[in-house]
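hey so i finally got around to running both of the ones u sent me last week. sorry it took forever, my laptop kept dying halfway thru and i had to restart like 3 times lol. anyway pasting them below in the order u listed, first the sequence line then the structure token line for each. didnt double check formatting much so if smth looks off just lmk and ill redo it

first one:
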Amino acid sequence: MIINNNIPAMNTYRQMGINQAAGQNSMSKLATGLRINQAADDAAGLSISEKMRAQIRGLDQASRNAQDGISMIQTAEGALQETHNILQRMRELATQASNDTNVEVDRNAIQDEINQLKEEIDRIGNTTEFNTQKLVDGSIGAKKAPGVDNAAVLTEGLGKATAAKLAGAVDFNDGTAKISDVTSAINDATQTITVDGAKIDFNVTQSGLQATAGDTTGASFATYLQSQINEGIDAYNSKYGTDVKHVSVTAADDQISIESGSTGANSGVATTVATTGANNLWEIAGLDVSSATTHSVSGTDGQFTTAGAANVAAINGTEVAEGTLTFTDGHELTITGTTAAGEKGNIDIATTVGDGAAPTASIIDGVLTIAMGTEASNNTVTDIESLVQGLGTIDGVDYSEFTVTGTGDFVTATGVTAAAQTGAMTGGGNANADTSVVTIDGKAINVTWGAVGSNDPSQGDSMNSYAQHIQNDINAAIASYNETVPASERVNNVTVSVQDGAFVVQSGSDKATSSIKFDNSEASQLLGLANQSSATQGGGVSFQIGANQGQTIKLTIEDMRADALGVADVDLSTREGAEAAITSINNAIESVSKQRSSLGAVQNRLEHTISNLNNSAENLQAAESRIRDVDMAREVMEMTKNNILSQASQAMLAQANQAPQAVLQLLG
């Protein structure tokens, strides 16, 4: 028997503490009615419960939102009901005024009432509001699909035969294919290439790369590019103590190849393009040198190739953006341009490959984009219109009213484009398309473009129809020019044809050719294409009818005022006017009926939505309650048990404290 440590008393004391803590926990749960009062009570349960609570509150608010939406709809529908009543009265008056038993005084009296009714329709449209938001004035109507400058739509992605795209003239005098005023387009810039996993910066300067088309060959460009990249590699190795091998850049068989000097990294990367024309006009596919304030040089389409696949990963050391060089086995090499401070020029070694794709239509961020693919010479306005049929209203934009007028596949680009030319010819510039200056054989010819008439191309025709139209205008200008100059100075007629999606103009003297492209405004005026842009309106209203993002119902209410309904100009002062008014009012009644029907359908949908939301919230609340709420009867039982155990442990502690006193009997 020991007396320094009373082990039974210590054990009893510990158990008493446990029982008292359990009793206090039970009392806390009974006091709040919650099984979880702090995270320690049930960590996982608390997390699940809070997520459910967020959903429940969201569903409850969504239900209230739907109810508010119904109130808005009922407000608008009530206003349109009155508009309906007014239109019915107007139709009754129009029918009355159509009867010739009425004299002028009678019809004037009828017209006075009609005028008041029209004003009331406008007043209802202008003043009907819900929470200060106007409802039937068109401000929450469907946004009309923007009209399209047809030349721009019909020509997206069609240009295939360009060698140089300039904002100014393309001069081919004296048989020299020299692109004037281009050197200023190449600004000093810093480029980046990834070699053996290392990002190498190299410089491209105006003085280092001559940009005159007639002087720039594939070999000279390859030599310059190789020297600049390898200088960047040397600087990288010096800075980081690495041993990245030099690259070799070669030009052969119409391609530029960049090859790493590392062992095994032998997948030469190339971009190919057919070389056409004379005077060493080397067209480097995908080489795009541009500046915001100068001209630009563009190559034609080509394709990327790679020789072999051994150790390609040695080159693939960086994240690659979309649209860059792609190896056939999926690996990628990135060459990106980063302009130096103060400069806006860039060089992108990239290209696209023509695939004969058909026209496509897509909607991204509310913008309708129509791309004609690469079937350049056969696409027509009819192809465009077929793309938008059946789109209907999407996100409040009514694409079913999309309109394309005019004709044809027409290449669009700012400025004049030349394609592998010889001889002496200059294409027209960027002036207003009504009158342009076309220089042929060094002679400036003022061409007045004729308006599209009854004998000119019509909707659905292809580019060939327009080629004749342009040829006639140019040759008419040449004839006028020849009448004013000596015989030795006269200019031969030109022929206009379609090649690779462009209008190709050929001189009658020395067969010089020029591929002419117009910008949007020029094409519209030249071909008589009307810009059908519609006034931008609202895109409807959205009702948030769910607890999460994107769970919405969209509602549009069109303009229900007199002008939009077509009754603003109703005149019953004559029998003929009264008879015509009957049809106009019938159409207005039909428009209001259609809008009211739409409102009723959305209201019914919202009522079903509310019922579903309430059901979801109820069941989710039940699930959350099972996690969070306490079972009162069971917890009372637990508290009673803990109280009894606590009292028992106190009694046993008293007994344990008395036990060591038995030692005194041994001393007696």
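and the second one:
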Amino acid sequence: MKALSKLIYLNNPDLVLFVGEALVGNGAVDQLSKFNLKLTDLSTSARPRLIDGILFTKFDTIDDKIVTLQIARSLRVLVT
């Protein structure tokens, strides 16, 4: 995570995406919250970059696609 945080700081990307499986469901909220917390804690910048959006894989295998909208709303990020 420290290397990833440094990579984000040095490259200064336009968009930071988190790629995760849609099968995780509501566990993604916890996963992304912890991910953002680590990015904040390990950043060497005064203004750390956080996750801008989520890219879900295996989206076609889940029946309840509403969970994705709930995740986007609770984390206030884009979902692709």
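quick thing i noticed on the 2nd:
The chain has one domain: 2-79.
anyway thats it, ttyl
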